[in-house]
Amino acid sequence: MRKDKEMKSDVKVSESMFRQIFDNMRQAFALHEIITDAGGKTIGFRLLGTNKTFEEVTGLNKSAVIDKTLDEIRISADRKDFVDFYERLLLKEEMVNKRIHYEPSGKYFNISLFFPLEGQIALLADDITDLVKREEEEKLMEKQIQHRQKMESVGELAAGIAHEINTPIQYVGDNLSFLKDSFADMMNLCRTAVKLHQSDRDGNDIRYDLARIGELTEAVDMEFLMEEVPQAIEQSTDGVKKVTKIVAAMRTFSHSGVAEDQTDIDINDAIDSTLTISRGRYKYVAEVQKDFGDIPLVAGYASDLNQAFLNLIVNAADAIREKGETKTGIITIRTANDQDHVVIEISDTGTGIPEEVQPKIFDPFFTTKGIGAGTGQGLSISYNMIVKKHNGSLTFKTERGRGSTFIIRLPI
Ligand SMILES: Nc1ncnc2c1ncn2[C@@H]1O[C@H](COP(=O)(O)OP(=O)(O)OP(=O)(O)O)[C@@H](O)[C@H]1O
Ligand SMILES: [Mg+2]
Predict the structure, then answer these.
(1) Where are the domains of the chain?
(2) 0.70 cut: is pTM over it?
(3) How far is the CA of 319 from the centre of ligand 1 (A)?
(4) Residue 261: what are its φ and ψ, rounded to 5°?
(5) Ligand 1 pocket by C-beta < 6 Å: which residues?
(6) How buried is 298 (Cβ within 10 angstroms: 0-12 exposed, 13-18 middle, 19+ buried)?
(7) Which tens digits make up the pLDDT trace of 210-247?
(8) Superfamily of domain 255-412
């Protein structure tokens, strides 16, 4: 049988041990008695115990709060707003395990409540301000990286786009100067015809004008003009349409994406736009085959999806170029409807992805391309855009030496 005294000292040891643990916890801890009215309804709380972190976080000294009700603390410590906030935490269980922001101090807490004994409630508050700040910084940085990549790819594509615009603009220009000359010739002929009509009306001799019309018709080669002018007009209209298309594609691309709203996107159109502005990146190495299905609209952020398509198309072209075959490679883009998803497959006949590289390709800054050729951001950004921002999935199949297929699934 152990003596009473020994047992008491044991209790003391364990008490001081718990006290130490409590005081050194990073969480603020407070135990309260629940004060109820005669009908059992909670009408207040009395503080029974707190730890050191509680004092640090709340600025409420232990000696000033122990055995006091929240109402008493509210009045005595001139902490009305804080105590109101604190009382809400104790009353509202829906706040538990959620991020709580206490604005006056700018701090974030994770709150847990539990009931150690009948009539008591304990509160644990974990200060997660640093974690939240870090997450916010990371989010901001991610956004900046994505924005930069978007701007970089527009920059890289600029030369190709300029070239794409230059070709139609050039023939529109040539056609316009041809039309100008032809118009002058035809005007000459028209003027003589008008004169002929006037002479005839006035009863004058029309033989000279008639002969002149015959001469002019031959000189300006009317037959040739009648054939060529409509064609020149048609071609020019066509050229302007091409330029308009490129400009429209660039516009969807250069959206910053920061404050962009979700819209209903025609994925086939979006891919077409992306192909239009990236033509300069693939046309020398690959032919693009489109196999577009009849797919529903997808709610999403157009410029982000375009960016993801662009990254995959550029990778496909790079893989074909790296394979270094003389014959043109093929990039196949398929779209299809699969129950509640739209599926987009981008296949290439390039190098394929070696097995040892496969687990790393989605890592930010992982690249097998030389300095200046790749920054290793394309796939990690595409992954973010598709998986995180659109709840989709991005996977791939690959065979060494034969090519790869990247598969995007987007929920409808
Ligand atoms: N279609 C593909 N075929 C073969 N390898 C690929 C393909 N797509 C990606 N890879 C591999 O994955 C790596 C990472 O691709 P990612 O697009 O993230 O970066 P990158 O193309 O190297 O650089 P960036 O896209 O920033 O210009 C590439 O370096 C390449 O090794
Ligand atoms: Mg890439």
Answers:
(1) 4-127, 130-254, 255-412
(2) no
(3) 8
(4) -95, 155
(5) 311, 315-316, 319, 348, 350-351, 353, 357, 361, 366-369, 374-380, 404
(6) buried
(7) 888 888 888 888 889 999 999 999 999 999 998 998 88
(8) Histidine kinase-like ATPase, C-terminal domain (3.30.565.10)
